[in-house]
Each structure stands twice: as C-alpha cells, then as structure tokens.
Amino acid sequence: MSEKTVAVDPAVLSGLENYRNLPAAQQPTWPDAAELAKVQAQLSVLPPLVFAGEVDRLRDQLALAASGKAFLLQGGDCAETFADATADRIRNRVKTLLQMAVVLMYGSSLPIVKMGRMAGQFAKPRSSNDETRDGVTLPAYRGDAVNGYEFTPESRAHDPRRLLDAYHTSSSTLNLIRAFTTGGFADLRSVHDWNKGFTDNPANARYESLAREIDRAVRFMSAAGVDAAELRSTDFYVSHEGLLFDYERPMTRIDSRTGTPYDTSGHFIWIGERTRQMDHAHIDFMSRIRNPIGVKLGPNTSVDDVLELIDKLDPNREPGRLTFITRMGAPKIREALPKLVEAVKASDANPLWITDPMHGNGITTKNGYKSRRFDDVMDEVRGFFEVHTAAGTFPGGIHIELTGDDVAECLGGSEMIDEATLEERYESLCDPRLNHMQSLELAFLVAEELANR
Ligand code: PEP
Ligand code: MN
C-alpha cells in the first residue's frame, strides 16, 4: 500500500531559505566553501534522526505541561563532546534523568516529559570570538560541531567535516538512548537499578527509600493484575540549541504526510539568549519548522519581546508549540518574571513556562573556574515557583545542565563541594553542570514545590 503524500507548496521551500537574507549571529567562519558544500550535500541525504510522528507526540505532551497536566524535565551537558559519547557516560546521564523523573512523578503525581539536552548539543554560542592564553590568541571553542577544544591553531580552526561527526555521534547516542528507554532498562520495576554504580550519599539514600515505596506500589499493581506497557518503557526526547544553519537546514525535511518541514536533528529545538534577535535568521528559520520550539529569556527581556516572540513563533496559538525557558538569575527572577507572566496571561497565548536556573547564576571562582552555586540554582527554582503561584500560572518544567558523573563543577549541595574540589573533578569544556547527587537533590526540591502547590 502506498502512503498518501501531500504536494509541497513552493512557498514553504523558499521560506526555508529566507534565513540566508537575514543577519545570523554566532555562525562559524568555515575556511573552505567547497568542503562545506560537500558536507551539506551529504547531510541532506542522511536519514532523519527523529521522525515527524514523534515530534507531534512531543508537542501534544508539551501542551499537557502548558496546561498543568504534565511537567517537563529537560537536562544534559552544556556541550556534549564526541569523546564523551561513550556507553557509560550516556547511560549515567539517562539513569540520572530517569531517577529525577521518578522523584518528580512521585512527588507531583503528574506525568513527567523526559528530554535530554543530548544527541545534538554540539554547538555553542560564545561571548567572544577569540580566546587568549599566555599572549596567544586563537578562535574560541564553539562546540565539537565546529572546532576542537585543544588550544592549537589546527584544533581551533573551523572544520565543516565536524558537522558530519556531529550527525553520526548524535545518531549513535540516540540509538543507545532508544535502546535504554524502550528495551527494558527504563522499566519502573528497576527503579533500584538506576541507583546502582553511583557513590553512596544522602541524595542516593533518600532516593533508595522512595524507590522502595515505588517498588511496593508497582508490586501491588502487578498483584492486582495491572501490567501496563507504560511501566515497562518510556518516551524520551532529545533536544539541542538550534544554532548552526549549516547543520539544521540540511537536517530539515518535508514530511510526506503533511507537506510541512520538520527539523529532524532533534525533537525539540531551542533558540538561545544570544540569537533571539527579532528580525534575525534564527527566529525566522525556527518559525517555519513544525518542531516545538523553546526560547531562552534572560533578565532584560521586555513584555514587548515576549509578545512579539509569540506572534512570530506561535501565530496560530498552537498548544505545545512554544516554550519559554526563563534564565533570569536568582537575584532577579522575582522582579523580572512577574510582568512577563502577567502580560502573557492577559494575552490569548498559552506557552509552556520552564525554568533554567543555571545560566543566570554563573560566577568565576577565585581559583579561576566557571561555576555556579547550588544554593543560587535552588533559589531561582523557588523564585520561579513563587512567581507562577502568585500569578496563577503553571510552572511547567525545569531545564538543567547536569551529568550523571561524579564531577565537581557547581559549588555546594549536601556534599558541600568547595572551590578546592573543583581543581580535582572539573571536566566540563563549557558551563558547569550539576553532578549526580546535586541533580537528585534538585529533583527532590522541585518535587516538594510541586507537591505544595
Ligand atoms: C546554554 O543553554 O548552554 C546557553 C548558552 O544558554 P543561554 O542561551 O540561555 O545563555
Ligand atoms: Mn550552558
């Protein structure tokens, strides 16, 4: 039986090229146009990483979160690297997210939409084009999809062949995620197993006691004859910042069922704080794809910005289409967020609001590390809940930089990581991430906030 296909409107195709006429911030300067063209031709015929039907399903789930009937957990590295796309590290991140999701689900009695900053988070916006070390200036590291971290001219040169490596690394990462989350590993009857291999600590102990309760509940359901598929596997979506047009455009394909474009590089794509200029390329391109779109909102976002973003990215006011990811900083959120939330509430839009309590809380330690204080992260989360509770809107999710590994990058937490410890276990090439224990602690805090609403 042949599938029904829909003719493509030529205006849709030409619209996808419109970004080329607009200013685009944060793009690489590839040295070799012929090499880039070759890479793009290859990318454009490689299989999609995600499918339109999955993207549509995610949009429906985000619509539930926007209306208070689900909660989004989005997390992963600031910057994934090719070298760290190993089975162990991917498994630890998936386990951490599954554990956080269980804590959140148990505390809130809501379905948790699980989403990795994974399988595509290989490109980074930077505040400076260059980096200087000991009098030597080289191009800044822009993520493994663009150049290498090693501080040599060869490594820091922009190389378009890295876009293909980004595709293949995303593909193998996603393959393992799919195997883990549908092949038995995510079975709710294995809640204890997800905690294995992590060092003993207070958050793990608290998790273990919650896992015992879940175990009892699941055994009770089994005894009562319930054997739901929902207990055995889970949906798990992937997301990244849609930064590089030379990657996102060739990965954007027309869905034969509907004749509409989907960016098949990931289920959910977000626009960063540095590339959301209203008349620039990123907003234009993302407005034309069907994927649910996120936009980061920093502390200086105005009411007009927010209303204009809604008009540009969600003109049809489609449930689940648009997510605002606020990253205000703990000292600012209680002042900066209420006016935005109130203005949107008074409009006809219903975006999903989630908190990124990481990016407004950066500090540099005395010994020179980019870090964040766990207390500031927690405080921004509390502020986010306070503001939404006061406005009567739903605080629909969290967006976290985390790793399942036992790193020391953020200060504090019950392990009380201090500045000296950063020197021993700091691995991130970009922003500092919560480690496994800090991630679980944060999940318990959010679960309490959700339970107390
Ligand atoms: C990020 O998510 O890593 C990032 C760069 O965030 P923002 O755009 O909010 O600064
Ligand atoms: Mn970051």
Summarize the structure in words:
The chain is α/β, with parallel strands linked by helices. It has a single domain, classed as TIM Barrel, CATH 3.20.20.70. It has 15 helices and 14 strands. The protein has helices at 10-15, 33-45, 52-66, 87-108, 153-156, 161-182, 202-223, 229-232, 245-248, 281-287, 303-313, 333-345, 374-391, 419-425, 436-451, and strands at 71-76, 112-116, 130-133, 136-139, 237-241, 252-254, 261-263, 268-271, 293-297, 322-326, 352-355, 362-364, 370-372, 395-401. The strands form four sheets. An eight-stranded parallel beta barrel has the order 1-2-5-8-9-10-11-14, surrounded by five helices. The chain has a two-stranded antiparallel sheet with strand order 3-4. Strands 6-7 form a two-stranded antiparallel ribbon. The longest helix is centred in the N-terminal third of the chain and has 22 residues, at 87-108. Bound molecules: phosphoenolpyruvate and manganese (II) ion. Phosphoenolpyruvate binds next to loops.
